[in-house]
Every structure is written in structure tokens, then in C-alpha cells.
Design brief:
The protein folds into 3 domains: about 1-155, no CATH class; about 190-235 and about 240-290, no CATH class; about 300-440, Trna Endonuclease, Chain: A, domain 1. The chain is built from 16 helices and 17 strands. The protein has helices spanning about 15-25, 35-45, 50-65, 125-140, 160-170, 180-190, 195-205, 210-215, 220-235, 260-265, 290-295, 300-315, 355-365, 380-395, 420-440, 450-460, and strands spanning about 1-10, 30, 70-75, 80-85, 90-95, 100-105, 110-115, 150-155, 210, 240-245, 250-255, 280-290, 320-325, 330-340, 340-350, 370-375, 410-415. A hairpin with a 2-residue loop joins strand 13 (about 320-325) and strand 14. By secondary structure, it is of the alpha+beta class. The structure holds zinc ion (ZN).
Length: about 450
């Protein structure tokens, strides 16, 4: 997966200093797009390629750009790195009472690495930051009172709305019990729709006789059912018991956990009510949904476990999830802090119909979610889609500046069927990373009439 890692400097520098720093970092190891252009132009004009000359020529253009500045570097190892002076905006955090507060901040120097998480790490970023720190030492005048070198720290995107919900949950208490590894493997078994509907029916009746369930029907389906029951017993979703059924009354007289117990009782001379020895009566197998099975079927806990498992497998941390969360009567399946955006996931074992879309829309609006995801074991009806797309349409403005068709933002995602679960969630996470990468590179201006961001996205294969 293509990702971007960011680090910020603990101090602010001016645009003029930024340009000098970028020019100094530019060299055989890190080739800067803008810096290379300036160097070539200076050389073509027969001027010396010094920091002072570069700064003089660049500053005129920089003044027009305000307090923002960007430079993109390609390292000799093929990494793509971004150096960015982020304009003063308003930092959003939450206070100790869980309220959103906005603090003005100074322009901030940030460095970023765009990498492929499958075969690359974030290691080149701290190295690059060191090079930038050295360049700052070289060209930025340090006040004599300040002895400490600049330090870098990781930027972790946090959705203030998510932080608010997390705060509310801390006050209200957690609701989701983390699954055991046994539960996780049972949840996978429950992905099978036929097993699930069999278990749901069995749960309704409580206990059933296997010989009655598998009575030969037309088509000979009993063998398949027999096999299914055997499998569900083996994995631990179904418990088995035995009953002695009286031949005269055709009703169970004794219920025990194993056939051996019946043999023992028979040896000890225990008889049926009708007087026959137990060995002459019918022994029937009884089945019921096991305790872990019942727990997983309640509130479709199995589905929540599967979705959480997939999200964690995609590199999200459990700190970024709020699972089975309820607030003032609203039941939310999963809140997710996806790279600083609040995503609301709704899980439905069955079809997601128009009625479901109304309650989901209300929660989506109320909690200011940026993206909504419907995960259903069946399908999302077309009228439900229409309603949700209309509600979600209002969120598009958040990413309105992304004119790249490949960076398209979809406020509502529909994952239909569990086979689509992994790929659907992966597309959601990759979409968020791609937008972040796009926003990191879009600041780069055109060089010689070329749209640099397009070249860069091409280079990144996005
Ligand atoms: Zn009997």
C-alpha cells in the first residue's frame, strides 16, 4: 500500500530560510525539483550557484506565495520526499472536557516520505530530517540564547470528532469485549451463509434431534446437512448431547452428555419407564448452538469481529477504533479515525434497506462523520443507496480541490457480501492514503509550464 509518513519540526522558519534550506539539501543524495531548476537557470545565465544567489532569485516569486512553500526530493535510493512549510492555520484539538478548541499556530516545517508499505519502511524519513536539520544549522541564523538543536516528531493525524467520541466513551465505559483467538476463528466459520442460517434456526428452537433434522427428504439433502452438522460440532459452534427415546411413547426419557453414560446406566440395570432395558431403546443425538456460538450470533458479534480484524490487518491500530459504541440511545457499530477523518461503519447481517438508511443518515450527520461505510452480508437496496448518496454528497466539498479523477473521494462506500470485505476496506484505506499523498504534493508549482504534481503522481504510480 502506498503511504505517506510525516514529521514536524519543533520550530518555525521563514519562507526565505525555507528556500535556502531546500537549496542546501539539494545535492547528489537528494535531488530537489525546484532547486535543480534554479541551479540550471543560474548556470545557464553564467551565475555562480550559491545559496545567496539562489535565494535572491527565488524570493521574488516566494513573496507572492505567502507563507507556504514546497519542495520535492528524489533520493538516490529512489525515495520520494517532501519538504513543506505548512501555512499557519488553526490547529484543532479537544480540551479536558471533550470540547473542540481551535488554536492558531505558526507556520510549521514538515518533512514527509511517500513509500510503499509492502517493501519499504519509514526509515529514510528520519535520515532525511537529519539532513534538513544540518542545512538549517548552516543557513539559518540561530539566536545566541537558543542552544538546543531543532528536533523532529511524528505527525499523527487525529480527527477531533473522533477524539470527542473517544472522550465520551472513556466517561461512559467500553462496550466491546476483545475476542479470543478461538472466537476469531469461529467468526470466520460464520461467514458461510448456510452455516449461519442453520445455526440461527437452531438457536430459535434451542435443541433439536439430529435424526429428525436429517430425515431423508427428496433430493437426498440429508447427507450434506449431516456433513455440515459434523463440521459445526468439530469447530465448536454446536454442542452435542444424547437422549434415550422410549419406543413405546416415542419421547425422550433420559438426556446425557455421552453415549458411554447410557452404556454405564444400562450395565447398572437402569430401565426405561416402560420397563425395557435402556439398550433396547432408541438413542437419539441432540444438538444445540454452543455458548460461544450463541454469543457470536447475538448482535452479529461475529461480523464486528471480522471487520475489526480486517481493519487491523490493514495497518490501523486499535486506538483508532471505537467498537460497539453507544451514546444517548444511538448504537454505532464502528467509529474509525482514518488518517484524521471520522469514518462511521454500519454492519448488517442481511439486506440493508431504506429504513436502515434513515437511521444511519441521522447518525452520520449528528456525529459529523466524513465518510460512511455500509458492510452488509447481502446487498444495499437501490433506494437506500439513493438516500445515503444524497446525504454523503454534502461531504464532497471537503476534498473539492482534488481535481485529479484518480483521487476521487466517495463519501459513502458499500461493501456487499463478505467476499468483498477485505478488498472493500483496503480500497477505503488506500483511498485515504492517496488523498493524503495528493495533498502533500499538490503544493508544488508548475516548473516550465509542466504540472509537477501530475509528473509526481505518475512517478508514484497513482
Ligand atoms: Zn421405553
Amino acid at each position: 500500500m502506498k503511504k505517506i509518513a510525516r514529521m514536524k519540526l519543533d520550530r518555525s522558519i521563514s519562507v526565505a530560510d525555507f528556500l535556502k534550506v531546500a537549496f542546501v539539501v539539494n545535492g547528489p543524495r537528494y535531488r530537489g525539483v525546484w532547486s535543480e531548476g534554479v541551479s540550471a537557470s543560474l548556470a545557464a545565465a553564467g551565475l555562480e550557484k550559491t545559496v545567496a544567489n539562489a535565494a535572491k532569485c527565488a524570493l521574488a516569486g516566494a513573496a507572492a506565495r505567502g507563507e507556504e512553500a514546497h519542495e520535492i526530493f528524489f533520493s538516490d535510493e529512489g525515495h520520494v520526499l517532501v519538504l513543506e512549510l505548512v501555512a499557519p492555520g488553526r490547529e484543532i484539538t479537544i480540551d479536558e472536557d471533550g470540547r473542540i478548541v481551535r488554536r492558531p499556530r505558526k507556520p510549521r516545517l514538515e518533512a514527509a516520505l511517500i513509500y510503499d508499505s509492502e517493501h519499504d519502511t519509514e526509515a529514510p524519513l528520519p535520515e532525511f530530517c537529519n539532513t534538513v536539520s544540518e542545512a538549517i544549522e548552516e543557513v539559518v541564523e540561530r539566536p545566541k540564547t537558543r542552544k538546543r538543536l531543532p528536533t523532529w516528531s511524528s505527525v499523527v493525524p487525529q480527527s477531533p470528532q473522533f477524539a470527542q467520541r473517544k472522550f465520551a466513551q472513556r466517561v461512559g465505559g467500553a462496550h466491546f469485549e476483545p475476542p479470543s483467538s478461538h472466537e476469531r476463528s469461529l467468526a470466520r466459520e460464520l461467514e458461510d451463509v448456510q452455516s449461519r442460517s442453520f445455526l440461527r434456526d437452531l438457536k430459535k428452537v434451542g435443541i433439536a434431534r439430529v435424526d429428525e433434522l436429517t430425515k431423508p427428504a427428496e433430493g437426498g439433502e440429508d447427507a450434506a446437512l449431516q456433513e455440515r452438522i459434523g463440521h459445526l460440532k468439530k469447530v465448536g459452534l454446536v454442542d452435542e448431547e444424547f437422549a434415550v427415546v422410549c419406543r413405546s411413547k416415542n419421547s425422550p426419557v433420559i438426556r446425557v452428555s455421552s453415549q458411554e453414560e447410557i452404556q454405564l446406566m444400562d450395565q447398572r440395570g437402569v430401565r426405561c419407564q416402560c420397563g425395557r432395558p435402556l439398550s433396547e431403546e432408541v438413542v437419539a443425538e441432540l444438538i444445540s448452538v454452543s455458548e460461544p456460538g450463541q454469543k457470536l450470533l447475538d448482535h452479529s458479534r461475529w461480523m464486528t469481529i471480522r471487520v475489526v480484524e480486517e481493519l487491523l490487518a490493514l495497518g490501523l491500530s486499535s486506538r483508532e477504533l471505537l467498537v460497539s459504541y453507544s451514546e444517548r440511545g444511538d448504537e454505532m457499530d464502528i467509529f474509525l479515525n482514518l488518517l484524521g477523518s471520522l469514518v462511521l461503519l454500519e454492519l448488517k447481517d442481511g439486506a440493508f434497506e431504506l429504513g436502515h438508511s434513515y437511521s444511519f443518515s441521522t447518525k452520520f450527520m449528528k456525529y459529523h462523520a466524513v465518510q460512511g461505510v455500509i458492510v452488509t452480508s447481502e446487498y444495499v437496496s437501490s433506494d437506500a443507496r439513493e438516500t445515503l448518496d444524497e446525504i454523503g454528497g454534502g461531504r464532497r466539498f471537503l476534498f473539492a480541490r482534488a481535481r485529479e479523477p484518480r483521487i476521487e473521494f466517495r463519501p459513502m462506500l458499500y461493501i456487499e457480501g463478505l467476499d468483498s470485505l477485505g478488498p472493500g476496506l483496503e480500497a477505503m484505506v488506500q483511498g485515504a492514503w492517496t488523498r493524503m499523498i495528493y495533498y502533500a504534493v499538490r503544493g508544488l508549482e508548475s516548473v516550465g509550464g509542466l504540472r509537477m504534481e501530475r509528473i509526481l503522481l505518475e512517478r508514484l504510480g497513482l
